[in-house]
Amino acid sequence: MAANHNPHGPLSQLTGYHLRRASSVFAADFARAMEGTGLRQVLLGILAVVSANPGINQGSVGRLLGIKRANMVSLINELIDAGLVDREVDASDRRAFTLKVSRRGGAALKDALVRIELHEQQLLAGFTADESRILLDLLGRIERHEPAVD
């Protein structure tokens, strides 16, 4: 094999390819870091948003996280069944429900965040603090990009 041969060919120049590969590395290590907690990325995301916004409704949580409405009911039920989130009837709209993190959910979130901080420190050990901030900024700019609709 030639020294300058690139086995990935044109993939090596595609940002999306590298984002997917990096995401796979993060997801696999996240699963390892969270082993035994029962929390998957999506459940942790919901728990974090509810914790930051006590009294939020599940539709708002879904919109913030980009989760389809049809999937939110089962995800919220999973958190409620685990005793991590409490659901209450909204006082201003008796047809709606509000969510809040339970005491158990708060403890689970605190533990998860410690695990995730260590997981991210390990994966980003080769980055300076400035590089980590730049990476977050760049990824956020991609997240906020709305493709033009024809």
TrEMBL record:
<dbReference type="Pfam" id="PF12802">
    <property type="entry name" value="MarR_2"/>
</dbReference>
<dbReference type="InterPro" id="IPR000835">
    <property type="entry name" value="HTH_MarR-typ"/>
</dbReference>
<dbReference type="GO" id="GO:0003677">
    <property type="term" value="F:DNA binding"/>
</dbReference>
<dbReference type="InterPro" id="IPR036390">
    <property type="entry name" value="WH_DNA-bd_sf"/>
</dbReference>
<protein>
    <submittedName>
        <fullName>DNA-binding MarR family transcriptional regulator</fullName>
    </submittedName>
</protein>
<keyword id="KW-0805">Transcription regulation</keyword>
<dbReference type="InterPro" id="IPR036388">
    <property type="entry name" value="WH-like_DNA-bd_sf"/>
</dbReference>
<dbReference type="InterPro" id="IPR039422">
    <property type="entry name" value="MarR/SlyA-like"/>
</dbReference>
<dbReference type="GO" id="GO:0006950">
    <property type="term" value="P:response to stress"/>
</dbReference>
<keyword id="KW-0238">DNA-binding</keyword>
<keyword id="KW-0804">Transcription</keyword>
<feature type="domain" description="HTH marR-type">
    <location>
        <begin position="12"/>
        <end position="144"/>
    </location>
</feature>
<dbReference type="InterPro" id="IPR023187">
    <property type="entry name" value="Tscrpt_reg_MarR-type_CS"/>
</dbReference>
<dbReference type="GO" id="GO:0003700">
    <property type="term" value="F:DNA-binding transcription factor activity"/>
</dbReference>
